[in-house]
Structure formats: structure tokens, C-alpha cells
Amino acid sequence: MYVTIIDKERENVMKDNETDEIVKIAKNCRHFSMCKIDILGSGICASGLEKHYVSFFPQGRMDLYAALYENKIPVTDRCIEIVDSCNLCGKCDYPCYFTQELRPLKVMKALKEHIKSYLKNGGEIVKTDDDQILIELKKIVGDYWATNDPAIGIAYHHDICPHTTYKMPHYVVMPKTKEEISAIIKLLNQNNITYAVRGNGASSHGLTFTDGVVLDLHRMKTIEFDEKNWLVKVEPGVSSFDMQMEAQKRGFRVHTAEPSSLVCANIMTTGILSTFSTAYGLAGDNYVTAEFIDRDGRYFDLNDINAPNLFAYEYILGEPEPFAICVSLSMKLHAKTDDEDAIIIPFDSLGKAMDFSKECAARRIGLSIAILGQEFFATFMAPTKKLATEAKDLFINKLGMPYLVLLIGDAYDINCVKEMGHSFINNDLFKILCQSLPTLKSAEWLDLLDSLIEDDPYEFLKLEQFKDLAEMALAPSPAHMVEDIDPELQPFFEKLYQKPEMLDLVWLNTSRILSSRYCREKPPVALVCYLPCESSLIEEMQYELKKIADKHGIYGDLGFITPFDFGKRCIWEYDFYFNNLDPDEISRVRQVNDQAFELLEEYCKKTGTIRPVRYLLNHGCCRKENLLYINPK
Amino acid sequence: MANRKDKYIVLTGATGFLGAFLLAGLLDRGYQVIALGRSSTMKLAERLSNLVTWLNIGPRQRLLPIEVDFTKKHFGLDDKAYSQLCANTGKIIHCASDTRFAERNRKQVMESNISNLASILEFAEDSQAEHFYYISTAYAVGVCEGICLETPVSLENNKFTNVYEESKAQAEDIITKGCNKIAMPLSILRPSIVYGHSKTGRALKFNALYYGVKSLSYIKDIFVKDIVEHGGTKSIKWGFNINNDGTLYLPLTVYLPENGAVNLISVDYFVEATIRIMEQGDAGIYNITCDNPPNILTISDYIEKFLGIRGIKTICKPFDNPPNPAEELFGRFFEIYRPYLSDKRIFDRSHTKSVVNDLSTPPLTYDIFDRCMSYAVACDWGKIANFPK
Questions:
Q1: Could you tell me where the DSSP H helices lie in A45-175?
Q2: Which of A174, A593, B4, B304 is the most exposed place for a label (fewest CB within 10 A)?
Q3: Contact B213/B307 with Cβ under 8 angstroms?
């Protein structure tokens, strides 16, 4: 449909003007939508907030630029609008550099330059015609909110999942109400048109593509608090980050997933899982009721006695479309206390880390528990890839801390860990380590710590004056922390790291703004499972997975493990990292992933207690007990 | 008593500190040596090759490395290789040891120092070796005061400072019984704390005496950097400053429960004494120790002079006031060595002197101290690239 005639002149303009670096940035966008939420307090792209379509956000413009560069789409009138609406304010650079070390502003500039040259050279602006379906869609949502312009559709046509088959949507429509959604579904059903429901354009698992209609619910952003009943009702366009920040303003916490992910979408797909699952649970634990539009376009409220029993779990792997569209969700509000704090407990083996975590969960110690391998921990704490590599080496080889348990809890929880006799890194020391990362690897005195001969190898952390010593030795400061950052951005980041919350482990874990750094070096394919909290089982599976990865030259490593349900089960994530710009590596990671799934299936059958999260896709709203403790039919 | 020249001396632990210097000494004197060692990430032959280069050891053709697994019967060698090893064996020097002190390493220390003895004693029997030499430690006698005789250790009601001492005492007992059973002559050599070569300063491991100097060197660097580069607000609060002569005033009070000495010997003395005992001594126990060990005050003076610091003092009772950061960190670093810094044991050396009367460890002068520590610093405490691992 979007076959365009590309004249030679246009092709040359593109290739002359663009550098490999800029295309690489554009194609490296992880589609995590971090440019659409204000994670750093530095503001969001104004045009995106106004126009809502993904293409008006930096993420969409990156896709647009890459598509134009590869001649996948023509220059259209919406394309011109998208480009004109960017004022090159540079706000996009901050969150993107913070999480991915990318500079999208370079792409925004290149995109403008390209269109300018294209028009100067007499390039044609292609207009897309309204067909009957589009006319009907526009009648439902209004003229501006339905389109078949490829400059809009391109932002919904792919993600970084190596298994994805890209599909270009024919139409993108942005309803504002559940009534509009109902009308759209009825229209599509009448015309046998497939659809996919999207929120913020964020996608990483390749499951939300269609060549029919994309329903982008980004305009449905209402949040209503019912504090008396400890509830908050959200519409499907509300991101986890926005909801969490609103809850925090009122002194509450909500259990959310990745910051840019949408709350309703999370519930409907994987169910909300996080390190806070230790205290807040997962899947059906997180909400009280929800409203839906079903596949026939009919509305139902889950609290209706005649509503479908969505708390039951049915194994329906591979369902192409959601069984219903969640149009609102009533989430639980959780209490926060003033004495919440975070500590990091080091371990020299996974077994010890798991024993500790399981014990804490069983004894109800801690709100959030996560065993982190150094791939995750070092990546999260370091502001750049280079420093992450150094930090990983330092923690594993110099400090002998291959595994770290991050525990968030109140003062009673922290005291319990102390009484259990564990040495730990508290938030103050974490801050010092972060702010001195650029010189940490050359701090020779750290060699001594490793050779301290104590029964607890981390005994030095119990030294009363250790913080003072570390401060004197490392001279931590925000300025020091940002030394390795792109010089142009250093002033911004120096100021940013002066904000207390930016090194506050409780805030960082509640907001989860660091977690998307895990794909900064290379994006991963994540295997996530619920399984018994048994280190021998996990170590055995990790060993097998690593063997598969090694065979194909792919790097695989533990992501995180979080115990929940009083230590009866845990969430376990294992990741395979691949270069998303290297076709050979993509092919290899596909093979790894396929073999890993086969292996997981074997373990599922063998144990009867393992539930890969992929069993859950499209049914994350079920009751966790139904999922975990009843064998699927 | 010299080894039959057609036979090899079989040495374990040749890649360790004492073993490496002993290997060098033996090769220098024309002995041919079979070095038994485990395989690791680097082949034994490669490790030994690096070592002989580093130590500038003489003819390598008289050194035969054999990779073995001490946990296995016949060291994991096939029948032919094992028979050949047995046939070539003259004397055995068992020097391999896990020298870690921490209780958390008990399992590994006991495995290495005790469990492995089964295959080694079996080998001694199978090879019908001429003599078995066991390199133990002077501290296998356990926690005691007064004169420590060159007699077998008592395992009953004995207390040990750490698992290393305990394992060495048990090992002496097991080896004694094992050798008695097969009527094999046994000599147990008990060195005290060994530092580098008194004439060249060379060493291979930088623990014990070195560890305190290294710790203080790093601690000094922390405070100097804080004062010079960052204004030293915290350092000054704790009373640290840079004196007019450029030295750092580092108020460091070290708690030692009593006045005593540090029994130190140089590695060259250890090697000379061991070879002499091997060539001229009879079976029995030998304390390879120092008759006039220095006390901690002397060593503190050396450290201050070497590092350019002032302010170290010792006290005989625990701190009244909270320790400053340097004291707390150094105290923790030095905790495991504390019992050896105020040692009241006197090691009898009658038997040793009967063989090496004309030989004694050189007194630890500042020159020797400086030579050894300068060597350690030049090697960046063993971290420089080509240092043997």
C-alpha cells in the first residue's frame, strides 16, 4: 500500500546528509517510551503531549527518520507536521541518555534537515486518501484521531524483539472513551478487520502488531483516587510512572511495572510483577476490579456477578487478540511509612542470596526483595556503559560480591537484617559508590577489603567509620559522577544527580527509572518464570541456559529473582543479550530463545511447578493462586 | 644424607612462597626436582616456567613438573606415570599448604592440609622414598606461653589461633603416624613468619609482615589525598595532618594485649636451613625460627620511616574512645595477625642448632626491611603484569 516511487535525487539527499551514527541512533531506539514520561523532571516533548500519536514523540521521530532513510515510507503531509512540530528543544536527550546513552536530538536535527533539503529539491508531499473505513473511524473519534498516514503508522510497526514479524497498520485510531472503543470494535468486526490495542507505543515482545487497525489508547489518561477505599481508578493511557507519582504525592504507593508501561496493559498482559511483589503480590493481587469492552464491543464490569470469571486461569498461549480491552482498572493503594529505607546485602553465591531472600519472605521481612546479578546491578547504578563494565568487574572481582540482594523495608525490616548478622551497603554508601564510580576501579585500598580475613567476607561494611573513610578516599560528588558523560550533557546531569531522589534507592525502585538501562549495552530477550524458591533448581536451569547461549555465542545472565507469597514461589528472570543491529546475532538469539523455550517446557513438565510468564500473556489479570498452584489443563 | 643423584627430590607446593624459594635453592645446588602441583587456569609447567624466570633460577632441565590431583588415588596419574614417578623419587618435601586463617575457609583448608595427606602418604609408601620432609609451622604448637620444644604437638586440650594452625598440628600428627607405620624417616620443619630474601628483597607473597605495611600505605594514601586534593575537612577533624617535613601525622593506636615479639625469619634463611637439614640432619622436629625476634615497636619505627608517617603507638588495653577511621580499618585488617604481634612463645632450637649451628636468621635491620618493602612496592604488591601468579 505504501509503495512509493523514490526518485534518485531524494535518495542522494538522504544519503549525503545522514551519517551512520545518526541512523544507528535512530535504529537503536529501544521503544521503551521513556521519552513520553518525565522521569527526570526535565519535561516532555510538547508536541507529543499535544498530538498524542507516537510519531510526535522522539521515539516516533526516530522510527520516522529510519524509515525515510531506508525508503520505507514517502514524505507525507503528516510527516511534515511531525517534523515541524519539533522545536529542537533537546528535552529528548536527557531521558534517552540517562537510560540508553543515546542522543536523539541528533536524529531530530537530521530529520529536519532531511525534510528541508527534500522540499528544497522539489520533493513531493504524498497525501493519503480517506477510504470508507477511515471515514467511519473519523466519525467515531473525530477527524484528527484516526489516520492511515504511514508517517503515523510507522511508529507502531515494529519493536526490538528478535522474533517479531513487522506489520504496518493500515489505520491508527485514538479513542478517548470506552463508548468510542465499543463503536470501533463493532465497526471492525462488521468489516472483518483485525486490530491491536496499544497504549504508549511501547513494545518489546513483538506481540502487538497488526496490519489492520491499531487502537492507541494514549488519550485515555484519567486517574481518579478513592482514598477512603484505598483505591485508584485509571484509564488505559495512564503510565505506571505517572500513576506512581500521583500516588506518591498523596502519600501512597501503587504496585506498578516498568515506568513507561501502561497500568491497564500490564494487568491485561503479563500481570504486574516487580521486586515489590514480595509484599504486594502479582497478577490478580494488584487490583480490585476492572471494566472491559469485549470482542463483540460490549461493555462489562468485572465486579458484575454475571461478568466472565477473569480471575480463573486458562492456558491460552498464542492468542492473537486480547479477549477484551481493559478500559479502566481500580488498583489497590498501599501505605508508605516515613522510615522506609533500602539496603544492599552482598553474597558470594546465588544459593546464599536465595536462602536469605527466601527467609526474609517467609518471615515477612521487607517490602521489596530482589537478588540482582552484577549485569543488572552494575548497569543500573552506572550512568554510562563504560562505567557499568568497570562497576561489574569491581563488584565481582575486587569486592567479591557477585550477587546482591536489594531489600526495601521499614526500620523494623532493616533492623531484622542487622540482627540476622548480615553486612550490607546502606543508601549512604551506595550514594558514595555511585558518585565516585569514575575512579572507583583505581581505588587501590579496595584491594585490602577483599583480603580482610573474617568469617563474614563483607565484615568491613560493619565498620562504623567506613562511610567516612569511603568519602575521604573516593571524594564522591555529582560532578565526579558525571565525568564520563558526554561533555555537552554534563551540566544537566550534574544538576540532576544533586537531587536527593536520584540516588535514593527507595525512590529509584519505586519509580523504576533505572531498570530500562538493562538494555543500554544490548537489548535482551528476557525469560521470566514463576517457580519454587529453590536455588538448586534455578542454578541448574541457569547452567543449561548458559550452555545454550554459549553454544551460539550469545551472552546470557541472571536478571533478577524476587521471592513472593511468603517465599513459596519466586519470580526469576534470565536474559539473553543481542545486538539488534546485527542480523547474524539476531538469528543466533532466535535460535537460543527457541531452544531455551524448549528447555523451559521440559522443566515445566518435569516439575509441574514452573509457570513461564509467556503462559500468561493476555491473561495477567488472573488470580495468582489459579496460575501458580493449579495445574493448567 | 645427600639425595642419590639419579633420584629426584619430589617437592609439593613449588608455586607457593616457601616452595618456590626452596625449589630455587635445590636447583642451585644441583638437585633434580619433580614439582608436583595441581592444574589450574594456567598449566603447572607454565606457572613454574614463569616462576623460574622471575626468580632467575638456574638450570631448568633438572626441573620436572607433573600435574597431579592430590584428592585422587595415585594423584590421578595413570599406572605407568605413577610407577615412573615412584621409581624416580628420592626424597619427598611436602610444602604445599593452604595458609588461609579465616574460619569460613575451614573446609578448603582442612581438605588441602589434611585430606590430601592420604594420597601423599600412600605415595611415600609406594615410592619407598628415602626421607619425608614436612614443612609445618612453628605455630602448630598452638596457643601457649614459654618454651616450645621441638617435640610432637599435643592435640588434646590444645587451642589454636586459627584453622591454619589447627590443620598443621593435625597434619603433623597424621604424617608422624603414617611415616611410623611404614618406617620412613620423617623430619618436620617448623618455620615461623617468613618474609622476603634478606639480600635481594625478593618475595612471592605479600601477606604477614607485608600486609600491615600495605594496609598502612593505602590508608596513608587515602588521608594524603583527602588533605592535599580535597581540603581534608574530615581528615583534620580526626587529627590527621601533614607535618612540616612532609610526613603524614596519622594517629594510629594499635591494641596489643601484651608486650611480646614478632618471630620473623627471612626466606633465604629458611631455604638454607631446610637444605642443610635435608643434607645433614637426622629425623625429628626442627624449629626454624628467630632467636632474637624484634618487638612491635621496632617494626612500627621501620614502618613509619618507610612510609613517611608519624603517630603509630601501641596500647595494652582496648580503646576507651571510639577508634578513628584509620584505626578501625587497620584494626580490622590486622585482627588476624594480632596474636603474632605480641608473641610470648620462645621457640627452642636445640635440634635445629645441632645441624645449622653456624647459621641463623639475619636480624631484621631497617636496611633489610626497606629492601623487602621496596621490592614489594616495586611489584605493586604482586599486582604488576608479569608477576608470577
A1: 46-51, 58-69, 77-84, 93-100, 104-120, 132-141, 150-153
A2: B4
A3: yes
Residues in chain A: 633
* Interface subset of B 178-207, CB within 8 angstroms of A: 207
Mean pLDDT of A598-627: 89
Residue A403's DSSP bridge partners are: A347, A373
Question: What number is the ipTM of this complex?
Answer: 0.74
Q: Judge whether A247 and A481 are in contact, CB under 8 Å.
A: no
- Looking at the fold, whether B109 and B255 belong to one and the same domain comes out as no
Decide if A465 and B329 are in contact by the 8 Å CB cutoff: yes
Distance CA B222, CA B233 (A): 13
B183 and B324, same structural domain? no
* Ordered strands of the A171-173 beta sheet: A146-147, A171-173, A213-216, A195-198
pTM of the model: 0.86
Q: Are B62 and B27 in contact (CB under 8 A)?
A: yes
Asked whether residue B226 is assigned to any structural domain, the reply reads yes
Q: In total, how many domains does chain B have?
A: 2
Burial grade of A229 (CB within 10 A; 0-12, 13-18, 19 or more)? exposed
Is residue B99 located within the same domain as residue B150?
yes
Whole-angstrom distance, CA of residue A93 vs CA of residue A110 = 14
pLDDT at A206: 60
Contact (CB, 8 A) for A415 and A365: no
Alpha carbons A282 and A571: distance in angstroms, whole number: 10
Domain that holds residue A99: 8-120
Chain B, nearest residue to A465 by Cα: B325
Chain A nearest CA to B169, separation (Å): 21
Q: Report whether pLDDT(B227) > 60.
A: yes
- What sign does the CA torsion over A139, A144, A145, A150 have? positive
To the nearest whole angstrom, how far is the Cα of A453 from the nearest Cα of chain B?
Answer: 5
Contact yes or no for B212/B326 (Cβ under 8 A): no
For residues A620 and B115, give the distance between their C-alpha atoms in angstroms, rounded to a whole number. Answer: 54
Separation in Å, CA A44 to CA A48, A56, A91, A220: 8, 11, 6, 18
- From the CA atom positions of chain A, what is the Rg in Å? 25
Q: How many Å lie between the alpha carbon of A491 and the closest alpha carbon of chain B? A: 21
Neighbours of A297 (CB within 10 A): 17
- Cα dihedral: B324, B327, B331, B334 (round 10): 160
Q: Which of A435, A441, A445, A449 should we substitute to test contact with B (largest number of B Cβ atoms within 10 Å)?
A: A445
The boundaries of the domain holding residue B40 are 8-191
In a domain, B180, yes or no: yes
Residue B89 lies in a domain: yes
pLDDT tens digit sequence for A87-97: 999 999 999 99
Structural domains counted in chain A? 2
